[in-house]
Design brief:
The structure holds two protein chains of two kinds. Chain A has three helices and no strands. Chain A is mainly α. The chains are: A mainly alpha, B mainly alpha. Chain B: One of its GO terms (molecular function) is NADH dehydrogenase (ubiquinone) activity.
């Protein structure tokens, strides 16, 4: 329950930054915040309070945390980082031409 | 186990990673390797068809490959049935034609361009061939990142702005897709598409609705259907012409394939019907088609106009597929093929013709037809095919779409098809008339033109570019006369699409 609450708060905060802020870098931060919320929720949801899923010889552990969501989240983090890098590169490029990163003052972004 | 399915993904991926090293050694070798990669890809596809021709005829065609030797549902499976084969063939053919066009068109930063291009080729092949939900997500994100970089490839203010807009919309869609995949995993404990499909009906209807809605939103953003279409025209406008041809000819079709795969094979159309989502989606798609054509009417920019027309056509295809009848699939798949060639051909021809003009605007289109008559006639043939003139491929596919709508008694859909054709007559004929207008050029104008259009100053590049334009026109005219050629592959793919139990059995049992 607590996990879901934090997920919703983080996700909505990110969505607010994406929609309401006019600064493009803040929009990217909002996008990353939403991604972070989803990743956090996935990891918290898959945690059932068990051991790390590494099987040691001669040792019997009955309760494992599922490693698949963790692996998938790792992939998601990598993809999120690369999209954020690409977006920031493009924003720098845009800043070189127009001298501003404000969404409302830029021509050609809002049509 | 057929290693060629894996090679279909690995060959373009390998080419993409090889090109920077080739550049370090000798940049002149680059084009040789580009051609080698794309020819190898075509050879693989053709050999798959020839070796399995008998199975294809009998409707038993199915190939798969287990990555790392892990059998499903544990490992990742690559599976190819008749539907995937049809999409793989047309994607490979488009990629082949456009890469040759790019050799003539892309003047500078060629190395970077080909790396991104082959990554798109690998990702679209992967998204078509995989039978694993998370793999689809990874390939979709690969498509998003590479195509975003290619949209900003011109490095102007407009291109960067368009790429930022494109990326923000599509990253959001990718995030929703990720959430959907993970919710499926938490509920069913599997990522294999056949396994999910087997157990999906046992979920509670609330969770079913949630998962379907998340996937629907993600894929509608990617395809550019009505409430989320605003990124599309701008990115089509500012990207270089071969990139636009890839965006409309390959990417949007791959997303339609993913849409069909997820909503027929994985989630199942019965589930959609039980949740009443199919009616909503049909209306959204038709509305999207309507708005696409209406926006196209007021557009004063040729590439943006073609983008809006793409929205109209993709909406129409989605709507006719959503009817879930055999005639609907037949018309939809045929229109996917014909739209793929028509739109890519139009952007290819635009890339040539817009070299003569200062901007993409309507007023600058003046006199283009007189400057190069033969390419402009090819352009007109492609436009007429978009409208739906009888001997061309566009007529055949639109006819089947219209018949499917009438058969299902969806009269609003039939109205949209005819409305689309009629508005298309208005907004295309305007450009044809403008192209034949007389224009007077002074010496200075001609000098300036030679500087501003490096493409036409080199003879072999002009030859390549115009040759690909003619090739697209030849495809449209040839298959327009012989569209019965598509009868067998389409029937096979509809059969394998409708028969979900067989797909599950083959993936899990083989």
């Amino acid at each position: 329950m607590f996990n879901n609450l934090i997920f919703i708060i983080l996700f909505m905060l990110g969505f607010y930054a994406l929609i309401m802020k006019t600064n493009l870098i803040k929009n990217v931060i909002g996008l990353n915040l939403m991604e972070a919320a989803v990743f956090f929720w996935v990891i918290a949801f898959s945690d059932i309070g068990g051991e790390v899923a590494i099987h040691k010889m001669g040792e019997e552990v009955t309760k494992f945390n599922d490693p698949v969501p963790q692996a998938l989240t790792l992939t998601g983090i990598v993809i999120g980082a690369s999209t954020a890098a690409l977006l920031l590169t493009l924003i720098i490029e845009l800043n070189k031409f127009s001298g501003t990163i404000d969404r409302d003052q830029l021509e050609g972004l809002n049509d | 186990m057929d290693i060629r399915i894996l090679l279909l993904i690995l060959v373009p991926l390998g080419t993409a990673f090889l090109i920077p090293f080739i550049d370090l050694i000798n940049a002149k070798l680059r084009r040789f390797f580009v051609l080698l990669g794309i020819l190898l890809e075509s050879y693989l596809i053709i050999s798959i068809i020839i070796n399995n021709f008998q199975q294809l005829k009998n409707g038993e065609f199915f190939l798969q490959y287990y990555l790392g030797g892990w059998h499903p549902p544990l490992g990742i499976t690559l599976a190819m049935d008749a539907l995937s084969l049809v999409f793989a063939v047309i994607t490979a053919l488009s990629l082949f034609l456009i890469v040759i066009y790019s050799i003539g068109y892309i003047g500078h930063h060629e190395g970077k361009y080909y790396v991104l291009y082959f990554l798109i080729a690998a990702a679209s092949m992967g998204a078509i061939l995989t039978a694993d939900m998370f793999n689809i997500y990874v390939f979709i994100e690969m498509l998003t990142i590479t195509s975003g970089a290619l949209i900003g490839f011109k490095r102007t203010q407009e291109a960067s702005a368009a790429a930022i807009k494109y990326l923000i919309y599509n990253v959001l869609a990718g995030l929703l897709f990720f959430l959907g995949v993970l919710i499926i995993y938490f509920n069913l404990g599997t990522l294999n598409m056949a396994d999910i499909s087997q157990n999906f009906a046992s979920l509670e209807s609330g969770i079913q609705l949630f998962i379907s809605a998340i996937f629907l939103t993600a894929i509608l953003i990617k395809m550019g259907i009505f409430p989320f279409l605003f990124w599309l025209p701008k990115s089509y406008d500012t990207a270089p012409s071969p990139v636009t041809a890839v965006l409309s000819g390959v990417l949007s079709k791959v997303y339609i394939y993913i849409f069909i795969r997820i909503f027929w094979t994985v989630i199942g159309f019965e589930t959609l019907e039980a949740l009443n989502l199919n009616v909503l989606l049909l209306d959204l798609a038709l509305l999207s088609s309507f708005f696409g054509h209406v926006f196209a009417l007021q557009s004063n920019n040729i590439k943006r106009l073609l983008g809006y027309s793409s929205i109209g056509h993709i909406g129409m295809i989605t709507a006719v597929i959503m009817l879930n009848t055999e005639a609907g699939f037949y018309g939809g798949l045929l229109h996917i093929i014909s739209h793929m060639f028509m739109k890519a051909g139009l952007f290819v021809a635009c890339g040539y013709l817009l070299q003569y003009t200062r901007s993409h605007a309507y007023r600058d289109f003046k006199g283009v037809g007189i400057r190069n008559r033969s390419v402009f006639i090819a352009f007109i043939a492609l436009l007429l095919s978009m409208i739906g003139m009888p001997p061309l491929l566009g007529f055949a596919s639109k006819w089947y779409v219209l018949m499917a709508f009438l058969e299902a008694r969806s009269y609003f859909g039939a109205f949209i098809v005819i409305f689309g054709s009629l508005t298309a007559v208005i907004y295309y004929l305007r450009y044809i008339a403008k192209g034949f207008e007389e224009v007077k050029l002074t010496e200075d104008d001609l000098k300036e033109e030679i500087y501003s259009r490096p493409l036409l100053s080199v003879l072999y590049r002009e030859k390549i570019v115009s040759f690909i334009t003619y090739a697209y026109t030849a495809i449209i005219v040839g298959f327009g006369l012989g569209f019965r050629f598509f009868d067998l592959p389409l029937r096979m793919s509809i059969e394998s699409l409708m028969n979900v139990e067989r797909y599950i059995e083959l993936v899990l049992g083989g």
